Amino acid sequence: MDCIYLTGIRAYGYTGYLPEEQVLGQWFEVDVKLWLDLSLSAQSDAIEDTIDYRSVISLVQDLVKTSKFALVERLASAVADSILHCDDLVKQVQVSLSKPAAPIPDFGGKITIELIRSK
Fold first, then answer.
1. Is the pLDDT of residue 103 over 90?
2. Residue 99 appears among annotated catalytic residues
């Protein structure tokens, strides 16, 4: 199985456990790994024979921007499920969703959820 990696997708969203996170929002960063067969597109050189990753990037950004979940786990799962349902070529997806500025006192790191979903 072949892979396409989409890294550094950024979007401003309103997912978070604290009420102010769902009002003020914050930046999220998403990396996506798509498993699919690229042998046909490698031969044909035609975008019709692969997934148009511009549409995947837009899908991820739109989900982050419009979702208001309490948990980033739910947002990451929504991203993975949406990608699997948007294109029959994708057999498996890995989503790494990060909250780089989580509102946790005395914590300067980032929170990352990583999950894998398959058809």
1. no
2. yes
